[in-house]
């Protein structure tokens, strides 16, 4: 079924034929443009693109009035478990912006909730775990995630893929270190001291926890891909709290395993964490096709830190959007110019959209990147 | 007055003679050991030391029961303005630990409070500014800091220098970016969006603010040195939120000015910010004699990023102290081993002591570093 020529020559191309539906029933051609032709999926594969693709971390979320409206009476974890909400929220930014990809709306802790961990997302705080998990017994009670635990994911992704047509859907999951920190600290943590104490002081206990969380993360992404997601992003949000040696010893083996298993699904894998300047090479080494870079590391510098065969994603400082448009334009040009040092580039912010960001500026920014990079 | 030989050969040595008192009335010799002989001041000057000097950021603070006791009924800003409290709190860790230096107890916002900015430190939140400063008019109302605004500093430092004898006192001030962020955001901020919007979008307004804050910072340190502090540390805590180019354009000129002026005082200058892996070279370029490194960047890697003639301070992960002692020892040995790549080394944590840290572990850690490095 694979085809020669520019389309189908990419690393991930064999899975989806130029037209018709693949074995998962996904459409390959919409209005004469195939999903695999999309600049986003091509850039992930470091193939030439008609323009630099754009999406924004947290493009679906509090910055949009329509998001605040639909979420007004619906708690976060309920929204993440209702296919109608997931579809609506995932689609909202796609209706506003000419972004080149949608990102599955969820929260990092959704798979934990799905296996029965007693947790809630408290407004203004974040996820709060009723009973922090700090010993082997508690860890061993974390059971595997089964597709039946998350029927809403399959349903929502299926619907989204139909609505998005030729626009790729990126699957979403939190990384195992970040999940471990929530479970061990019992909520958001600035210093991750209990997490690190376990990682540094009880390596066997830590390994057991990380193995379980990695399997859960993998399954959460696998279900999204099986339902039609065209790429995945693993957000290990807080992994930047670790030194390179600690990341190498305590996280890399698990992330590597997740990415290796994801490799069998034949979709591009993006890996991102904030404050990971020292870890960029290791994030790539873990097996990511695309490494996300926060705004602290210029992309030309980041390109030197990742190994050959890695595309980059990023990295306009989200705070830039609070400055006048001329500043946004100038800084965006700088990002695009430095990105030429990368083998492939997906334009994004260096972290999530800030809640008070003006959506009109994001719309303008999307168009600006497309215009500036049109070939 | 300066002397040849190993003592007196350092860059900062001419100021303080081997014995007697200098022009500020500071003692030069106590029990046959001069202040300038102290391992801390020698390490700052990259001179050979009898053991690697140790101190801990936030060694005075909530981790100590005696601190919690004296602070129980005294609000933070009152404690920072009372000489008896400053002396007591600064001395508390020195009584417990064999640390090689004391650090003047204060808070970053004390000089702002002293010039009349309406602010308070709220427990569990941090500094809160009644009216955030976001335009030129408000900035122009920030007046200069005069020594008469802070008589308690002069009094407390004078007393401390007497009590500390041959143990150096490090002067303390917050850096101008961090002060600007508190003033502009109105309190602690995760994303510094208003601060960055001003820095990126209104460079002239930003320059006016930074000039005023730099002058205030300089004066706050100058008063401490005039009263007898033997070194200074500029904590620009949040500067790690900036990309290298933004730091270079928006902060470096001001820090450079502060350090140049401090150079006239002839005391070692330490510069620290958390998450500054990408900025280490620039922090040194600003004119620091010692660059503090957080735990994310191994010291051997940090040594490659700073220019010749710079000592390093750091950098055990503060969370390590929550792991068993064997882990603390092993990781400390690793820090000491990597530090051999630096021209001078002052042992410290990579960030402040966490409030729930066991003080006995810090005592043991201090002794351990001394033993491991005794020459």
UniProtKB/TrEMBL annotation, chains A, B:
The organism's place on the tree of life at top rank: Bacteria
Pathway: Porphyrin-containing compound metabolism; protoporphyrin-IX biosynthesis; coproporphyrinogen-III from 5-aminolevulinate: step 4/4
Pfam families: URO-D
Keyword Lyase attached: yes
GO cellular component: cytosol
Region (Disordered): 1-28
HAMAP family, A to Z: URO_D
Annotated protein name in UniProt: Uroporphyrinogen decarboxylase
Gene name per UniProt: hemE
């Amino acid at each position: 079924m694979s085809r020669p020529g520019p389309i189908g020559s990419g690393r991930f191309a064999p899975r989806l034929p130029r037209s018709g539906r693949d074995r998962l029933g996904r459409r390959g051609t919409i209005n004469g443009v195939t999903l695999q032709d999309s600049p986003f999926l091509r850039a992930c594969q470091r193939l030439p693109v008609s323009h630099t693709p754009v999406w924004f971390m947290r493009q679906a979320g509090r910055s949009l009035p329509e998001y605040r409206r639909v979420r007004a009476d619906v708690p976060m974890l309920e929204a993440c478990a209702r296919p109608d909400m997931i579809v609506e929220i995932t689609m909202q930014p796609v209706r506003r912006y000419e972004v080149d990809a949608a990102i599955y709306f969820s929260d990092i802790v959704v798979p934990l909730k799905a296996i029965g961990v007693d947790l809630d997302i408290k407004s203004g705080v974040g996820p709060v775990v009723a009973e922090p998990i700090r010993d082997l017994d508690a860890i061993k009670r974390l059971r595997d995630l089964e597709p039946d635990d998350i029927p809403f994911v399959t349903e929502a992704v299926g619907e989204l893929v139909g609505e998005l047509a030729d626009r790729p859907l990126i699957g979403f999951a939190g990384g195992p270190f970040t999940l471990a920190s929530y479970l061990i600290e019992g909520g958001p943590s600035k210093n991750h001291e209990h997490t690190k104490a376990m990682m540094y002081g009880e390596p066997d206990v830590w390994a057991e926890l990380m193995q379980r969380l990695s399997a859960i993360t993998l399954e959460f992404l696998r279900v999204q891909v099986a339902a039609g997601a065209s790429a995945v992003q693993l957000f290990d949000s807080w992994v930047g709290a670790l030194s390179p040696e600690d990341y190498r010893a305590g996280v890399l083996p698990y992330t590597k395993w997740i990415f290796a298993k994801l490799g069998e699904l034949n979709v591009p894998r993006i890996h991102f964490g904030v404050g990971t300047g020292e870890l960029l090479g290791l994030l790539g080494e873990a097996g990511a096709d695309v490494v996300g870079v926060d705004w602290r590391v210029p992309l030309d510098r980041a390109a030197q830190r990742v190994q050959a065969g890695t595309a980059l994603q990023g990295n306009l400082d989200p705070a830039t959007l609070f400055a006048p448009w001329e500043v946004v334009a100038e800084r965006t040009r700088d990002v695009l110019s430095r990105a030429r040092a990368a083998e492939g580039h997906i334009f994004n912010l260096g972290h999530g959209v800030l809640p008070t960001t003006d959506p009109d500026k994001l719309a303008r920014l999307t168009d600006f990147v497309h215009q500036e990079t049109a070939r």
